[in-house]
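Re-run requested by the PI after the first attempt was lost when the workstation crashed. Everything re-entered from the original request form. Ligand of interest: uracil.
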Amino acid sequence: MDITWDKLEYTIKICHACRLAEARTNTVVDDGNKNAAIMLVGEGPGRDEDLSGTPFVGAAGKLLDRMLASIGLDRTNVYIANIVKCRPPNNRTPLYDEAEACIGYLRAQFLLVRPKIIFCLGSTAARHIIDPEFRITREHGFWYERKGIYISSTYHPAALLRDESKKREAFEDLKSLREKIVELNLI
Ligand code: URA
């Protein structure tokens, strides 16, 4: 394999494969532990992430940290990435062609990290990773297995900030993530 972190990070930094490059301040590649067994995938950078270059540092990120803490995790034992590496205007959902232009970078991240679990945060990640028809309200918390990798999802933390009533279900998903980690002996 000739892909390296340095090459990947540089390629993303100079990427102009889609229109999102035009308005970005920073590309946002990842955070957390590059050797983690658990990979979290969000949608794309928001304003705080665009300014800082780090995923999930705004309000949704603070909630994500609390969600992780509720099952004994933090950014030292997970790897965090997004479907797109540049902020969509006004935080809209990335368009299909934008996600397609960027998904190769996520694949490279996956190949470098080699996680045992992928946990999708929200429907955009689940649609690009699990199934294009994925319905987060119906299918969050379900587990899928592909080539020995376990994949599941929960609501995006920003969605939980908008609708607190989903938090109980999200906590069930997190408990299920914790159980899978224990079952697979990952921590
Ligand atoms: N929302 C995301 O999906 N990713 C981030 O990095 C921040 C907010």
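Saved to the shared folder this time. The longest helix spans residues 96-113.
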